[in-house]
What we know:
Blueprint: H1 2-23, E1 30-34, E2 40-42, E3 49-60, E4 75-81
Antiparallel strand pairs: 1-2, 1-3, 3-4
Amino acid sequence: MKGMKLNFAAIAVLLGTGAAFATSAKPADVKWRQLSNGSYQQVTAAYTCSGATGICTVSYPTGQDPNIDNSNPVSQEAGTFH
């Protein structure tokens, strides 16, 4: 009986841990556009990208400022920023 209680307790801990990982949300990535002077500006309003050449926007993880560290972008959107 004692062994069964320990098994149930272990299963409960494992299920609780799994539920915690399943419900933790990943922070949203942040979109930036590169200005003509080479610096980056965070995109906070509606925009469009036209054409297929060039880089319109670049997404970085929340908390990463590409003006300080522009390595490892999450994604890029092609085109010209408008």
